[in-house]
Amino acid sequence: MQILDGKSCSEQIRQEIADQVSQLKSKGRRPPHLAAILVGDDGASETYVANKVKDCQQVGFESSLIRFDKSVSEAELLAKIEELNANEAVDGFIVQLPLPDHIDEHKVTVSIDPRKDVDGFCPENVGNLCLGLPTFVSATPNGIMELLARYNIETEGKHCVVLGRSNIVGTPMAILMSRNTNPGNSTVTLAHSRTKNLKALCAEADILVAAIGKPEFVSADMVKQGAVVIDVGITRLADDSRASGFRLVGDVQFDSVAEKAAWITPVPGGVGPMTRASLLQNTLKAYLRN
Ligand code: NAP
Question: What is the whole-number distance in angstroms between the Cα of residue 6 and the centre of ligand 1?
Fold first, then answer.
């Protein structure tokens, strides 16, 4: 078994971006600017957004964090999005999900200017992805494709099973893997909670992408000898032995599955850091397009 090391791969990407930013600055250009909107005080969202701001600082981007109380009205949030859409000094922005129940996430997503939608969630960008046109690909599937590319994992003609059909991970992942590209050109099965014979199906996969959010759901008997296993899941499980009070667990039973897999991503240190690096790549792309 070999590790698909998202941590070191993402560090390499960050270094490449930092080099490009310092070249831009040396030519007197302003740096790329990513803004993030955070509503409420959910612990995981706070951590994700803080990491995004830290990542921007590390590569030399400008960043803005716009915070709203969880009682913010939908109208007020939409007004801020309009303001960011019009602000020429902001290249891209994200609205950290989930949002409080009284705010319609779809309304928020569709109100973001597609040219600044570096999360790749808005209908125009998702449509472009389906058509194979230039777009912002959602950060997690984009990061996984980059990881496969940088490790030269052969995907052509392989059977790829994607577990989970969410709009931000499973579905775009399945589209990307089925595309006539490298990586890509796989024969893809998109599985979900209504899929029958899931164990047997997963055991046929040359490439298995688990994105369901069920800790350690994928056991060794669901994995083919020599498969490539990508674990997207991140669940916080209470753990009193840790200073943080929790530990992160993936969707895959790492130790036993690693014995059968040819390649596997760890949690943490696999898909997570690649997702973060992807957002930076998308922001740089938005900046260069402008
Ligand atoms: P989501 O929106 O909750 O979607 C979960 C998907 O898994 C759904 O399609 C669901 O099927 C399917 N599913 C649930 N239980 C299943 C089961 N027992 N068998 C088969 N399919 C099942 O989740 P998400 O946003 O895609 O995230 C998935 C996981 O990835 C979470 O742990 C999340 O924290 C993690 N994540 C990690 C990163 C990263 O950077 N590493 C980024 C994003 C998400 P139905 O559609 O039928 O309900």
Answer: 20
